[in-house]
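Predicting holo structure, FE2/S2 (inorganic) cluster bound.
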Amino acid sequence: MKDRDEGVTITAYPNGPLIVRGDVTILDVEGRAIPRTRRTVALCRCGASTIKPLCDGSHKLVGFCTEEPAGSS
Ligand code: FES
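Done. Tokens:
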């Protein structure tokens, strides 16, 4: 039996989404599979997407930043 996580990677892009590559099933809170048409999918982590959990590019419009502003630490 093939391991579901085989070859799956998740990359956190600076100021952007989580890019998921590989054969994974993404479920909604009810446990229903979210349809995928590609092996690579972008998951929103800024909260602004209109197609959550997928990224729609809104992170650019809202100025999502993954790095702390200079002098904040
Ligand atoms: S990370 Fe792209 S819309 Fe949220």
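The pocket of FE2/S2 (inorganic) cluster is lined by residues 16-17, 44-46, 48-49, 55-59 (CB under 6 Å).
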